Amino acid sequence: MAQMKFLGGLVFTVCLFVLLISAKSTDVHYFSKKANYAVKVSGLVIDPYPISRGKNTTFQIAAATNEAIYGGKLVIHVLYFGFHIHSEDRDLCAEMSCPVSIGDFVVSHSQELSGIMPMVDEHKKQLMCITFEFSIVS
């Protein structure tokens, strides 16, 4: 019986460890160091990490705003070694619940391969623009 409890605890610990290493918190950098964006990013989690070709990846951006956001879009540009290879726009309110109240929030987006994700409000004013790096495995 004691051996079963030990094995159960070991399996639980290994599963927890696998969950912790399969997602990665990533450093973000603002695209423009001079811009005063309405949205301040506090963190980014990429899950799973490393990213695998052909698999969906979730990018969770933790942020805060000092003004309510009533709508807008998530603009995605994918660069590969500095070369632009893909762009798309997503409705911000389809990615998260609108309006976004003043304070902390999380925007979560799932897809294959993205590298730069600026947000703009309903008047096309840029709310934030960040860059981050990630690895892709086959």
From TrEMBL:
Keywords: Lipid transport, Signal, Transport. GO terms for molecular function: sterol binding. It comes from the Eukaryota. One of its GO terms (biological process) is sterol transport. InterPro entries: Ig_E-set, ML_dom, NPC2-like. Residues 1-23 form the signal peptide. Pfam families: E1_DerP2_DerF2. Residues 31-134 form the MD-2-related lipid-recognition domain. SUPFAM superfamilies: E set domains. Belongs to the NPC2 family. Monomer. Catalyzes the intermembrane transfer of phosphatidylglycerol and phosphatidylinositol. This is MD-2-related lipid-recognition domain-containing protein. It comes from Sesamum radiatum. The lineage of its organism: Eukaryota, Viridiplantae, Streptophyta, Embryophyta, Tracheophyta.
